[in-house]
Structure formats: C-alpha cells, structure tokens
C-alpha cells in the first residue's frame, strides 16, 4: 500500500437539512435555535496517510510501548489470576471515563448476576467488550468492531447493536437538535466507508504501534459510528490494537486508568486531532500508558501482599482446595459455594469447607445472600481494586 506523509487533514463541514418531528418539548428559544440546516463534520480518509510527528513525541511513544511490553512480559508469566483483575480494572476505568461508576464490590456481585447496580452491570458488559477486542485482535476489521459493540451493549441496548448508526448523533448542546452541539460527527450515510477506512489504517504494519493506536482511536471517536457506547468501544479497540501489534500478548494493561486523571486533556486532545494536530493525542496515549503501568504494578503489589498475608493466616494441607480458593479470590473477589465448586472442580461440601476455613482466617466475610444463597467477599482484594480506581482518578504518579 502506498502511503503519504504530509500535514494531517483537519475535518471539514457540510450543511445538512434538519427536520423536526414536531413533538419536541423545549423552550421557545431552544426551538428557534433548532430550525434550518445544521453543520456536520466531513471526516478525511486516513488509510493511506502516515503520521508526521516531532521526534520527542515519537521517542515518548516508543518508550511507552516498551514499558507496556515489559509490564506484559513480567506479569504474563503469572497471568492467572492477574490477567482477569487487570481486565476488570481496565473495564471499570473505561466506564468511568463515561461517568459510569461502581464499586469493586458491586462489579464483583454483578459478575455473579447478584447486583442491583445498573452501572456495575455496564462495567461487566464493558469487560466482555474488552475480551472480544482481544479475541478478535487477529482480524481488525469492521465486523470485529461491531462484535465488540454487541458484547458491550447486547444485553442492555440490543436494538442499537449489530450495525452502524442510521441517524445523526451529536456531542453536547441541546437534546433536541444538533445545531448548538460541541461536536457533530459525520452524517450516518458516511459512516460505513469511514469505518472501512479507519480499520484499514488500524491493520497497517508499517507504523509505530502506539502512534497508530492513538490515531485510530481518535479517528474512531470522530466518526462516532454507533448511537451509544462509542467511547467504551473505542477504548476496547485500543486493547485489540495493542494485542495485534504485539505490544501486549498476555494481559490487558489498564490504559484507560491512565486517561482518568486528565479527562479534560483527553477531550482536548480529541478536539486537537479534529483540527489536524496529532501530537496531543499521541502524547496523551503515551502518558496514559506510563500511568497505567505504574498503577497496575501498584495494584498487583497490593494483591501479592494480600496473598502473602493469607498464606500466613490459613493453615491447611499443601493439597487442600483452600489454597486454590485463595488464587480464585484474586480474580473473583466475591464467590458463592456453587462457583467455588465449579472453579475448583470439587464437591459443594468440599467447596463450603474451604470457604469456612478462609472465613475463620479472616480472608473472607459474608457478603449477603441470605441463609440459602450466601455469598462471601475478600475485603483485601476489593480494597485494592477501589484504591486502584482512586489513584487513577487523581492521576497516579
């Protein structure tokens, strides 16, 4: 494929007619501002373009890629159970970028189908989208993106999954029309061709992976191909591209956690991209990667410390299922008897015996469910996960 290096093109605009449905409920002033044509973005094609960045941005992106790879190699050797906890952390952080928040306890309960929190269920769905992104990383095409989106919203908004949006969407401004929006993505008729184009860019093998990932993510968010879930799907795509580019091979590095500490910077970088300036989004992705690795190391350190404390507190035979239950708790910090029996491949009686032993040692506490459907939680793990989120929100250093 021939590529071209030149100044990155900014978006343009086109006027589109707007037809009100007549049933809008708004002030007279708002209704007046929603009359007549509106301006939608015209998004340039990028499949054959090569980013041209200053040396310091390229060097930072290269250093960040190397740091991600070192982190992946270090913990890939002991990926179970840390791979599951890192993926959950990335999913929670990506959701929080969209102001979807839930405690680690509620997310763990939602994984068991036992949470009343809609946000916790959305975080679990986001984890499914992340898994789909990693699974589909060997074929980064438009069908794969649609599958990621279906994994994200198939249970909660099935009607908008399975294809691209068919109507105009906008970001900010009024709820009844796009005329006063902060950003109006391209008209729906342009979305299929633009998505084919950006995924062709994502599959290229002649670009630095982190630079390519940052640009593809910004282009994806500019296209905004779905009615909802674009941000979370776009950040799942980041994980798929890192895996496809072999920056990561074993674990999901929580890059979204690195974005949480500077959300305004993230939004500003996407805005700069639309003006034809690549440096901010590439630099932000590099910074987020360093922050993700630092916070991820701290999380795993906390979990290892908890595991060591459990080893001192629990006295059992070397072949006891209680030891294997401790490993399970690092990736599934809320459990019930049936889950433990299935995961450890033991009888429910043996599973309950292991649970009771860890309760006696203070590793587990009852987490509701009544006498018949009791659940138990590992407070050390939940505390470590919540601390991870708090560090991400304040910009971990």
TrEMBL record:
Catalytic residues, chain numbering: 224
Binding site for ATP: 228-235, 266-267
InterPro entries in alphabetical order: Fido, Fido-like_dom_sf, Fido_containing
ATP-binding listed as a keyword: yes
Keywords: ATP-binding, Nucleotide-binding
Gene Ontology molecular function, alphabetical: ATP binding
Domain named Fido: residues: 140-287
The protein's name in its UniProt record: Fic family protein
Organism listed in the record: Agromyces rhizosphaerae
């Amino acid at each position: 494929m021939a590529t071209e290096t030149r100044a990155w093109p900014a978006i343009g605009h086109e006027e589109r007619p707007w037809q009100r449905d007549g049933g809008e409920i708004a002030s007279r002033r708002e209704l007046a501002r929603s009359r007549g044509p509106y301006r939608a973005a015209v998004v340039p094609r990028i499949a054959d373009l090569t980013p041209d960045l200053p040396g310091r941005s390229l060097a930072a992106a290269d250093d960040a890629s190397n740091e991600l790879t070192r982190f992946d190699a270090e913990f890939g050797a002991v990926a179970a159970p840390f791979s599951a906890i890192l993926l959950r952390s990335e999913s929670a952080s990506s959701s929080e970028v969209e102001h979807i928040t839930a405690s680690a306890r509620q997310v763990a309960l939602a994984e068991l189908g036992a949470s009343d929190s809609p946000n916790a269920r959305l975080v679990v769905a986001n984890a499914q989208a992340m898994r789909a992104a990693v699974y589909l990383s060997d074929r980064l095409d438009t069908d794969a993106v649609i599958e990621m989106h279906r994994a994200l919203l198939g249970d909660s908004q099935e009607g908008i999954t399975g294809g691209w949006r068919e109507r105009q969407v906008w970001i900010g401004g009024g709820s009844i029309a796009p005329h006063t929006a902060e950003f109006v993505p391209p008209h729906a008729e342009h979305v299929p061709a633009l998505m084919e184009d950006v995924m062709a860019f994502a599959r290229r093998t002649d670009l630095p992976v982190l630079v390519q990932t940052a640009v593809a993510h910004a282009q994806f968010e500019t296209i905004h191909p779905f009615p909802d879930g674009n941000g979370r799907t776009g950040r799942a795509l980041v994980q798929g591209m890192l895996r496809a580019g072999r920056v990561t091979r074993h674990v999901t590095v929580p890059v979204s956690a690195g974005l949480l500490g500077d959300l305004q910077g993230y939004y500003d970088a996407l805005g700069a991209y639309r003006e034809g300036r690549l440096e901010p989004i590439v630099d932000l992705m590099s910074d987020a990667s360093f922050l993700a690795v630092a916070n991820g190391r701290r999380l795993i350190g906390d979990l290892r410390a908890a595991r060591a404390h459990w080893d001192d507190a629990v006295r059992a035979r070397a072949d006891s299922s209680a030891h294997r239950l401790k490993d399970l708790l690092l990736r599934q910090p809320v459990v019930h008897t049936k889950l433990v029996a299935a995961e450890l491949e033991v009888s429910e009686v043996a599973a309950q015996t292991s649970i009771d032993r860890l309760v006696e040692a203070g590793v587990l506490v009852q987490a509701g469910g009544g006498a018949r459907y009791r659940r138990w939680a590992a407070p050390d793990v939940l505390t470590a996960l919540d601390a991870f989120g708090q560090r991400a929100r304040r910009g971990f250093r």
